[in-house]
Amino acid sequence: ICYGGTAINNILPKQDQFYNKDVEIPDYDFYSANALNDAKELVDIYAANGFQEVEGKSGQHHGTYKVFVNFIPVADITSIPKELFNAIKKEAIKVAGILYSPPNLLRMNMFLELSRPAGDISRWEKVLKRLTLLNKHYPLSAKQCATVEFQRQMADSEYADNIYENVQRTFMDQGVVFFGGYALSMYSQYMPKNLRHKLEKIPDFDVLSEEPLLTAQIVKERLADINVKDVKIIKRPGVGEVIAPHYEIKVGKDTIAFIYQPLACHSYNVVKDSGYDVKIATIDTMLSFWLAFLYANRPYYDKDRILCMSKYLFDVQEKNRLAQKGLLKRFSINCMGHQETVEEMRAEKAEKYNELKDKKKDEEYEEWFLRYRPTEKKEEIK
Fold first, then answer.
1. What's the distance, Cα to Cα, between the start and end of the chain in Å?
2. Which of 71, 103, 192, 267 lies 20 to 30 A from 221 at CA?
3. Burial letters for 336-368: b for 16+ Cβ neighbours within 10 Å, e otherwise?
């Protein structure tokens, strides 16, 4: 399933496509649940068609493979888990026999890039232009939002206010970054008045923490201080490299919070609330997470709710795009989490090489250090 610049270009109408194929050869980025074998198969197809200089190699990032033809990169293949692949495939767009990622996934990838100030910011201008074109032809849409609850409701709401105040204060003390229901309520001042009633003081938090388990344990302790006893912390697995492993906090049957480990360095703004300096995720950070949840296939992610929240937040961003201050500052340099550097990726590969250098026939070695040139074998046979 194709993603990235080529995918955006190829699902746009001709007049808005941005690649000039007479001048440049755009490479295809695509997702696969079987990336290593797909890379080798693609190399074999080129070799069978008479191309001499064909090579499949491991990329810098583990799980990515590059295919070169006559020394020109033609494909980047990224390995993703089967469950994620199937979820994306369900909504993929087919053009001339090729599957392209659904617009919400393409959007998610661009929001992700725009929310990482420690990443390659030289690409931001290009990414923003492409995002604008995608939004023009494939607007973020949601159905029947008037009937959708924006927050997870509590079945047992007798102590909801106390729990809300307690958990909110604990999270603020821990310096987490808010990006769920509470963060949305902060942006609600920029929403139409008829929507503001949808955001109440309900314990419904999604936050980023560098130490999610520790944060969850402290929340549990602070709830015990106000005699809220039936508190459970449940570890949930991640989804590939899209959603990190996370912790769910439940009071009885009610989920009150999810705490996520940052996968990169995600941008946020600092605002004042009740005398606290509160870290609220930028809209780009929030949308990158929410749109990723759409493809996670987990029972606790409500697609209608996520799409409606995303739509309203996106509209806030569009209407206030010139208000670059406070909560609405878009390109903030504050970020939480660690952005892996090229040097770190190389160091990891070097370490792996030392570990696997005596096992060159193993599949794991090939996964990390693929160098596949079928034309070389033919020359050796001659």
1. 38
2. 267
3. bbebeeeeeeeeeeeebeeebeeeeeeeebbbb
How distant is the alpha carbon of residue 372 from its chain centre?
31
Enumerate long-range contacts of 17-20, CB under 8 Å, 24 or more apart: 18/129, 18/130, 18/133
Same domain membership, residue 168 and residue 100: no
Question: Quick one: 152 and 290 in the same domain?
Answer: yes
pLDDT in tens, 83-99: 999 999 999 999 999 99
Question: CA–CA separation, 148 vs 161, rounded Å?
Answer: 22
Location of structure tokens 């300096």: 277
User: Is 55 domain-assigned?
Assistant: yes
Rounded to an integer, what distance in angstroms lies between the CA atom of residue 122 and that of residue 3?
A: 20
Residue 60 has pLDDT above 70, yes or no: yes
Domain hosting residue 188, numbered range: 147-336
Q: Name the amino acid, one letter, at 312.
A: Y
Q: Are 27 and 39 in contact (CB under 8 A)?
A: no
Quote the mean pLDDT of the chain: 89
CATH, residue 196 = 3.30.460
- Indicate the pairing of strand 72-79 with strand 28-32: parallel
- The total domain count for the chain is 2
Mark whether 271 and 327 lie in a shared domain. Answer: yes
Q: For residue 190, which of 313, 276, 332, 324 has the smallest C-alpha distance?
A: 313
pLDDT-based confidence at residue 378 (cuts at 50, 70, 90): low
Please indicate, yes or no, whether residues 202 and 165 belong to a single structural domain of this protein: yes
Contacts of 343 (CB under 8 A, 6+ apart): none
